[in-house]
Amino acid sequence: MITRLHIENFKSLEDFHLPSEPGATLAPLTVLVGLNGSGKSTLLQALDFIGQLVSGKVNAWLAAREWQPSDLQTAWKRNKQTILISVTWLDKDHGPIEWEARYNLQQEKCTYESVRLPEIGKKLMIFEGQVLKIANSNFELKTAISGATILFEGSVLSVLTLADVHPALASLKNGLLGLKSLELLSPHLMRKRAKSANDIGSGGEKLSAFLSSLNSDDLSGLSRQLRAFYPHLESLTVKSLKAGWKNLVLKEDYSPSSEFGASHVNDGLLRVVGILAQAYAKHSVVLFDEIENGVNQQIVGQLMDFLLELSSERQVLITTHSPLILNFLPDDKAREGVIFLYKNKRGATEAKRFFDLTRVTWKMDGLGPGEAFVDTDLTALSAELADKDGGEA
Ligand SMILES: Nc1ncnc2c1ncn2[C@@H]1O[C@H](COP(=O)(O)OP(=O)(O)OP(=O)(O)O)[C@@H](O)[C@H]1O
Ligand SMILES: [Mg+2]
Questions:
Q1: Which three-class secondary structure state does DSSP give residue 10?
Q2: Are 94 and 171 in contact (CB under 8 A)?
Q3: Taking CB atoms and a 6 Å cutoff, what residues make up the pocket around ligand 1?
Q4: Could you tell me the residue ranges of all domains in the chain?
Q5: C-alpha atoms less than 13 angstroms from C-alpha of 371 in its C-beta half-sphere
Q6: How many CB atoms lie within 10 A of CB 128?
Q7: How many whole angstroms separate alpha carbon 260 and alpha carbon 254?
Q8: What residue's CA is closest to ligand 1, atom 14?
C-alpha cells in the first residue's frame, strides 16, 4: 500500500505531502473531506496519474479527459515543466520502497527516476538521461540500457520486464499498476453493453463484461452481497448478445417477479454494484470519489462495513461530503483515516488529519465522527488553517 506521497506541480497540489505530518503514514482506509474545490478529486486524479505513469498510458489517460499535459501544471507555475513525485510503497516482505520521479510535461515522460529501500539505504533502480540501472536480487545495480533511446511514455517502470529485477522493484511496479480510480464512476456508463474486460473501467463502462468474466460462485456471491443492500433483488446476471456483447439483466422478486435490461436498472444499485465488484477485481489501491453519491441513507452503514472489510485486503481512498459516512467509522479508524483538505492563501491544497486538529479533537469525547464533523464550521476551519499557513487550528 501507499504509505506516503509527495507531489509538486500537479494542479492545486503545488507542494503537497500526504500525510502532512512528518513520519506519519496513511491508513488502509483514507477518507478525504473538505470544502468544494479544496482538492479532493484532484488528489484522486494525481494518484490515478501515478498509476498511468507506471502503465505507460499517460497520453490515452489525458485524451480520455480531454486534457493537455499543460493542464496538469499548477496554474501559477506555468514555467515549471516538471511534475515531481515521491511515493512510498509498503511491501509486506521488503518494507517501505521509495520511488521518486520527475515527469517532464514537454517530453511526456519521466526524465529521472530512482527506487530505493530507505530502511537499508539500497538503490533498486536509477534512471537518468538514457541510462537505466536496475538491481538484481543481490542488490547489484547493473546497467540495463544505456545510450540507445528507450521508447516509453510516463515512467521507465512501464518498460521494465520483471524477470531478473530485485523482487522489491517488481512489487513496487505491480503495486502501482494496481491503482484503480473509480473517480469517474457513472451509472450512465455502467448501463452500456461491453465485450471483454478485466475490470469495470474507470467510469464503469465495462461492468457487464467484467461481471461476465467472473466465475459463477463469484457472481452469485456478488448477487448475495447486493441482496443485503436491496432485499427485492432476485439476481443480477449477464446476458450474452450477438458478436460477444454483454448486457446486464436485473431480476426483482416482487410478485409477479420482473426482469429488466440494463437501461432500466436504477442508478444507486449500479453504483453499489460497481463498488462491490472491487472485491472481485484484484486492484491494490481503489479510489472512489463522493462515495455517497446516489445511495440512500439506509444503506450507508452496509456500504461502510463493506469498505472497511475491503480495506483489510487492499488500500481504499474515498472522498465524501457526508457526515453519515463518517459516523459509520469506528473512532480509531476515523482518527487515523479522515484527512481534511483545504487551500492555503496561494490556492494550493494542504492536508491535515481532521480529528487531530485542536478545534475538533475534543469533540470526539462526546460525539461520533460524523457528529463532530457536522459540528465544525469547515469554512472557518479552512480560513484559520490558511491564516496560520499550514499551522495548527
Ligand atoms: N492547474 C491548476 N492549478 C491550480 N489549481 C487548480 C488547477 N486546476 C484546478 N485547480 C483548482 O482546484 C479546484 C478543483 O479542485 P477539486 O475538483 O479537486 O475539488 P474537490 O475538493 O473535489 O471539490 P468538490 O467537493 O466540489 O468536488 C478548482 O476549483 C481550482 O481552484
Ligand atoms: Mg470533487
A1: strand
A2: yes
A3: 11-12, 34, 36-42, 73-75, 347
A4: 2-178+283-387, 203-266
A5: 9
A6: 12
A7: 13
A8: 37
Helix (H, G, I), strand (E, B) or coil at 67: coil
Are 335 and 356 in contact by the 8 Å Cβ rule? The answer is yes
CA-nearest residue for atom 24, ligand 1, is 36
Ligand 1 site-directed mutation target among 12, 184, 339, most atoms within 8 Å of CB = 12
- Residue 244 in 3-state DSSP? helix
> What is the value of pTM for the model shown?
0.95
Using left for φ > 0, alpha for ψ between -120 and 50, and beta otherwise, residue 129 falls in left
CATH number of 2-178+283-387: 3.40.50
Residue 195 amino acid letter: K
Question: Phi and psi dihedrals of 302, rounded to 5?
Answer: -65, -40
Cα of 349 from ligand 2 centre, angstroms: 13
Looking at ligand 1, which atom is closest to the CA of residue 34?
A: 21
Taking the centre of ligand 2 as the mean of its atom positions, its distance from the CA of residue 183, in whole angstroms, is: 9
CA of 179 to the centre of ligand 2 (A): 19
Residue 41 C-alpha to ligand 2 middle, in angstroms? 4
For residue 321, which atom of ligand 1 is closest to its CA? Answer: 25
Question: Which of 7, 13, 14, 41 is the pocket-test mutation for ligand 1 (most atoms within 8 Å of CB)?
Answer: 41
* Ligand 1 atom at minimal distance to the Cα of residue 14: 4
Residuewise pLDDT in 10s, the chain (393 residues) = 999 999 999 999 999 999 999 999 999 999 999 999 999 999 999 999 999 999 999 999 999 899 999 999 999 998 899 999 999 999 999 999 999 999 999 999 999 999 999 999 999 999 998 899 999 989 999 988 887 778 899 999 999 888 878 999 999 999 999 998 888 889 999 998 888 888 898 889 999 999 999 998 999 899 999 999 998 888 888 888 888 898 888 888 887 778 888 888 888 899 999 999 999 988 999 999 999 988 888 899 999 999 999 999 999 999 999 999 999 999 999 999 999 999 999 999 999 999 999 999 999 999 999 999 999 999 999 999 999 864 445
Ligand 1 atom index nearest CA of 343: 31
* Residue 253 near residue 261, CB atoms below 8 Å: no
